[in-house]
């Protein structure tokens, strides 16, 4: 994993730049702190409302750009965050304003859940329960916790003093989670799937080594892309500390090979027991 260097946005494909929200040009007439806070609150509310209004307007979504982001999250995630910097310059916000990435991610979640349903022989009802678990627990639920944690830590301990009115948007923190979650999903729910039954879920060292190495790669991607996301913000300091969890991950990986822990096998059993419980 190469170190990340903050540079100006590249000439990568980017969506068209709509006019800035009128909320962004509001200024306080009396300069009071309370008025500035109200304006900031209105701006955040307007951004959320705009995002959710576009959630089912598929013709307005830039799926080509979202698909480009997904590809580059694997081959060169730095370029994705250079385009986040471009969005800040053109639209005055770091978080996505186009739900196309979320829609495509939902499609991949559905497809991977169908594959796991076949591999684990869960049946139709099992597929529905598995899909709901993966979307609302694994992706959204865990994402809300992680995004809120990093949002709090970055705003509390990582802002450059003086902050000059800049802080980390919660929406951007959740976008960072989604960016990091996508490669993890593809590695553990797609690439691993053809090998799950006949290679990984066996009581052999090679099975354990192969499956746990995929976990190491997936979690490594998650940590690295999360690090890149917060390093892209020019008003944060000490972002390299976000790479420290890799040390613990490597230690757990080595212990798993020694002690015979097969993460994929354990996860398969967890999903199977969770979904099949009270199925009939």
The total strand number stands at 0
- The dominant shape is globular
Overall radius of gyration: 21 Å
The oligomerization state is single chain
Q: Strand-residue fraction?
A: under 5%
- Give me the strand/helix succession: HHHHHHHHHH
Uncertain stretches: 1-42
SSE class: mainly alpha
pLDDT averaged over residues: 81
**Helix content estimate:** 55-70%
Number of helices: 10
How many angstroms does the end-to-end distance come to?
47 Å
| Main sheet makeup | none
Explain what this protein looks like in three dimensions.
- This protein has 280 residues and is an all-alpha fold.
- 68% of the residues lie in helices and 0% in strands.
- The chain has ten helices and no strands.
- The protein has helices at 33-53, 63-75, 77-91, 100-120, 123-157, 170-191, 193-200, 205-231, 245-259, 263-276.
- Helix 5 packs across helix 6 (170-191) and helix 5 (123-157) crosses helix 10.
- The longest helix has 35 residues, at 123-157.
- It is globular.
- The chain starts with 32 loop residues before the first helix and ends with a helix.
- Residues 1-42 have low confidence and may be disordered.
Provide tags for this entry.
Protein unc-50 homolog, transmembrane, transmembrane helix, 280 residues, UNC-50, disordered N terminus, globular, mainly alpha, single chain
């Amino acid at each position: 994993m190469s170190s990340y260097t903050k540079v100006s946005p590249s000439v990568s494909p980017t969506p068209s730049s709509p006019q800035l929200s009128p909320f962004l040009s509001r200024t306080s007439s009396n300069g009071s702190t309370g008025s500035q806070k109200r304006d900031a609150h209105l701006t955040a509310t307007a951004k959320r409302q705009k995002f959710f209004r576009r959630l089912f307007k598929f013709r307005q979504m830039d799926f080509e750009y979202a698909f480009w982001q997904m590809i580059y999250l694997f081959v060169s995630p730095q370029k994705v965050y250079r385009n986040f910097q471009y969005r800040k310059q053109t639209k005055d916000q770091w978080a996505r304003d186009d739900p196309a990435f979320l829609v495509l991610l939902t499609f991949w979640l559905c497809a991977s859940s169908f594959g796991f349903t076949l591999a684990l022989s869960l049946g139709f009802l099992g597929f529905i329960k598995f899909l709901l678990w993966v979307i609302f627990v694994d992706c959204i639920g865990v994402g809300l916790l992680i995004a809120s944690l990093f949002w709090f830590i970055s705003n509390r301990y990582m802002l450059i003093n003086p902050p000059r009115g800049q802080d980390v948007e919660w929406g951007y923190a959740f976008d960072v989670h989604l960016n990091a979650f996508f490669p993890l999903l593809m590695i553990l729910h797609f690439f691993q799937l053809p090998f799950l039954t006949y290679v990984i879920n066996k009581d052999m060292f090679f099975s354990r080594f192969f499956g746990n190495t995929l976990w190491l790669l997936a979690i490594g991607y998650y940590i690295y892309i999360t690090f890149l996301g917060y390093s892209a913000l020019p008003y944060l300091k000490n972002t390299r500390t976000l790479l420290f969890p890799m040390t613990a991950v490597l230690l757990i990986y080595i212990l798993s090979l020694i002690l015979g822990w097969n993460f994929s096998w354990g996860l398969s059993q967890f999903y199977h027991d969770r979904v099949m419980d009270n199925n009939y």
